[in-house]
């Protein structure tokens, strides 16, 4: 078996990895006493021969063209993902930000073996019609216990895209109910909607932001603006978009310029609201705390505070899409907690790290006035809500949000040191004081992809986004020892690429 310390015995990587065991934390150690202290590499290339063959077979029955490598989840552990050939890589991509507590976490395995899980799996209910006797308790002890400040209700859904779609539906029904007042549906509305026409079919819109990503279903895709390939050939609603600030880095060197950029974007947004659409035509805006698929694009609290003020001023609902940013990765349980808003958003959607999905809200008027309007067969999944409950309880018990904030500070400083040696190749390091939600830019898509491949070859699974960005999405049990592995392999990869 080829190990990183043998591959690079004289490098900073090898020296650092040889001492990582002394940094073992009680949380990670308790969960994963057998987690590797370093990547374990068996084949010269990843994927290896077994993985290539398995992927070829899979491709005969399933579209696998986006596959990086076939994974052995039975053999993956903690922060390390195993491929089909037995290579174990430090995973800082984690199923596109979806693994909260590491692979094969014993607390989640225990929940998976419970009678409650068996009941939820073999008797999966149509929740809106036949809710289980324990669903309220499951929600109150998990998903609702984790609710953002100021929110006390939830609609559970099937995926992040589904969560956003149902939030949009809630926004439309809410705004049309306000317009209609106490009057019930008219015969004209009931007739015209069956022809997909107004007044029964609302002509209101959802506003999103350039480079935003909110999913791939029809409504969510109409608000997605990150890459053309996501949207091609799919009919779309003619909904508006507004510019999202493009900040300059380092932030402390461009305070005035960035403030002006955010003021510019807020002014354009208000112009869109007041001059380019009829009054009250925009039902809601949807925004990510960090535009993740669009290239990890950040804005400051000032911008988001301005958004909230504008939505209140013009009676527009504010939906915060925390599908990728939520559940602790930014050093707050919910990323929008960094903003110090004058009052909470109207809705917050979630998925990924909770391995469940839905949106939070408080105003009971966001629940439609008749049954079967916000509805599908499943309306979520009790088995996923049970996993979310376990994830929340483990996060709380082990103080993992605060620990992620601390590890993020450590990692950011380490990366700053490494990247300072390559100022012409690595730019715009960002995510300071945002936990491990960290990213940087390469000078071209080609160089970004070479860096991702070089890291994989040396034992780190890492992902990109946008045109030239590398993003980090590790678990909440990612610790200083893992940060050392990452920083050293990044440094070694950069040395190889730019000798």
From TrEMBL:
Q: Which UniProt keywords apply?
A: Aminotransferase, Pyridoxal phosphate, Transferase
Q: Does the keyword Zinc apply?
A: no
CDD domains given in the database record: OAT_like (cd00610)
> Which GO MF term does the entry hold, naming one?
4-aminobutyrate:2-oxoglutarate transaminase activity
Question: PROSITE patterns recorded for this chain?
Answer: AA_TRANSFER_CLASS_3 (PS00600)
Q: Which GO terms describe its cellular component?
A: mitochondrion
Q: Which InterPro entries match?
A: 4NH2But_aminotransferase_euk, Aminotrans_3, Aminotrans_3_PPA_site, PyrdxlP-dep_Trfase, PyrdxlP-dep_Trfase_major, PyrdxlP-dep_Trfase_small
What EC number(s) does the entry state? 2.6.1.19
Primary enzyme class: transferase
Which domain of life does the UniProt lineage start with?
Eukaryota
Reaction it catalyzes: 4-aminobutanoate + 2-oxoglutarate = succinate semialdehyde + L-glutamate
| Keyword presence, Transferase | yes
Which GO annotations describe the biological process of this protein? gamma-aminobutyric acid catabolic process
Q: Which cofactor does it need?
A: pyridoxal 5'-phosphate
Subunit text: Homodimer and homotetramer.
Family under the similarity heading: Belongs to the class-III pyridoxal-phosphate-dependent aminotransferase family.
Question: What's the name of the protein?
Answer: 4-aminobutyrate aminotransferase
According to its UniProt entry, this protein's organism is Debaryomyces hansenii (strain ATCC 36239 / CBS 767 / BCRC 21394 / JCM 1990 / NBRC 0083 / IGC 2968) (Yeast)
């Amino acid at each position: 078996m080829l190990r990183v310390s043998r591959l690079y015995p004289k490098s900073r990587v090898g020296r650092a990895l040889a001492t990582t065991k002394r940094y073992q934390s009680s949380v990670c150690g308790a969960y994963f006493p057998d987690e590797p202290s370093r990547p374990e590499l068996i084949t010269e290339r990843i994927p290896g021969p077994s993985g290539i063959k398995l992927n070829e077979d899979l491709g005969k029955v399933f579209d696998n063209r986006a596959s990086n490598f076939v994974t052995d989840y039975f053999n993956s552990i903690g922060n390390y993902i195993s491929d089909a050939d037995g290579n174990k890589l430090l995973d800082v991509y984690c199923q596109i930000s979806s693994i909260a507590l590491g692979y094969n976490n014993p607390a989640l395995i225990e929940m998976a073996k419970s009678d409650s899980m068996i009941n939820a799996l073999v008797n999966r209910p149509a929740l809106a019609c036949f809710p289980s006797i324990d669903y309220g308790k499951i929600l109150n002890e998990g998903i609702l216990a984790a609710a953002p400040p100021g929110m006390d209700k939830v609609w559970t859904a099937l995926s992040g895209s589904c969560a956003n779609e149902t939030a949009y539906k809630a926004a439309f029904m809410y705004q049309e109910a306000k317009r209609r007042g106490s009057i019930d549906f008219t015969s004209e509305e009931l007739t015209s909607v069956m022809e997909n026409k107004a007044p029964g079919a609302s002509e209101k819109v959802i506003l999103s932001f350039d480079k935003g990503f909110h999913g791939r279903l029809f409504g969510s895709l109409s608000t997605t603006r990150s890459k053309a390939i996501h949207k091609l050939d799919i009919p779309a609603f003619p909904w508006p978009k507004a510019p999202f600030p493009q900040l300059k880095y380092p932030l402390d060197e461009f305070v005035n310029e960035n403030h002006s950029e955010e003021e510019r974007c807020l002014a354009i947004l208000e112009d869109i609201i007041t001059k380019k659409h009829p009054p009250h035509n925009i039902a809601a805006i949807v925004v990510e705390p960090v535009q993740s698929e669009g290239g990890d694009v950040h804005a400051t609290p000032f911008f988001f505070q301005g958004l909230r003020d504008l939505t209140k001023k013009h009676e527009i609902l504010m939906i915060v899409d925390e599908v990728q940013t939520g559940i602790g990765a930014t050093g707050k349980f919910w990323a929008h907690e960094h903003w110090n808003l004058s009052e909470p958003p109207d809705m917050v959607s979630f998925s990924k790290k909770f391995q469940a999905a839905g949106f939070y809200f408080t105003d009971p008027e966001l629940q439609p006035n008749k049954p079967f309007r916000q509805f599908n067969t499943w309306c979520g999944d009790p088995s996923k809500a049970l996993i979310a409950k376990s994830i929340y309880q483990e996060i709380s018990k082990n103080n993992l949000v605060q620990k992620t904030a601390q590890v993020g500070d450590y990692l950011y400083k380490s990366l700053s040191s490494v990247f300072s040696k390559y100022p012409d190749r690595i730019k715009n390091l960002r995510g300071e004081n945002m936990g491990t939600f960290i990213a940087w830019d390469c000078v071209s898509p080609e160089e970004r992809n070479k860096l991702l491949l070089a890291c994989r070859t040396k034992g780190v699974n890492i992902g990109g986004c946008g045109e030239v960005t590398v993003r980090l999405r590790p678990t909440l049990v990612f610790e200083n020892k893992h940060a050392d592995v990452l920083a050293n392999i990044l440094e070694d990869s950069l040395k190889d690429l730019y000798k």
